[in-house]
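Example record used in the benchmark description.
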Amino acid sequence: MPAHQIARVVRTSGDYTLPPAAFADIDTDNLTITLTTDASWVLLLLLGTLSGGVSYHCFDFTIDGARQGQNYGVQALQAPYPQDIQIHWLAQLEAGSHTFRPQWRISSGSGGTLRASANYTPLVFAVIELL
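Model output (structure tokens):
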């Protein structure tokens, strides 16, 4: 049995602000992971800090372009003050190459900021293949 795989992206600059009203990729240039897996489960993680705004922030993941969550994604939360976020999702995959991306939207209210800073907190997106 092959060893499990872990792919991780850490952003330490370029905060993300004002998410759209519809789900969209947070950053296709820097927060995309492509991984070739066995037929197995994967754990997707988005770790960081969200602050400001009075919105409900909805987070989701796409696998090969398909959203994983429902209307409010895999997790929705409100962050009027800085708060750490830990968004996670388990998915079962067929063997092959897969592309993973985190998504974000607001459901109402004004936007906020998803931090990606060396001084404040990094934004981490990871995919872990579980065997």
